[in-house]
Amino acid sequence: VQLVEAGGGVVQAGGSLRLSCAASGFDFSSNGMSWYRQAPGKEREFVAVVNNFGSATYYADPVKGRFTISRDNAKNTMYLQMNSLKPEDTAVYYCNWRTYWGQGTQVTVSS
Known about the structure:
11 strands; mainly beta; 0% helix; four-stranded antiparallel sheet
């Protein structure tokens, strides 16, 4: 199993970023996928989850209305569109499937 995140960077508050997670080594289209994040000095926390079809999603309260999780099963890729970013969104963002994690991608939001 391999999960590879991309798309992180530095953005000003109010800006947007789109993260991607390229998956391989398992039946991507049959499995739900999640995003998590870990801010400096804090525990890793849940951000969003999408079902295998992409038809059902669920978000953590801090990101509801600003982030959108989606997937393209033809490309074995999951996405996280992040809008109206805030400094408190600064963290390393991780792609997750079961017990597997990607290496993470850093998102830094400056005020």
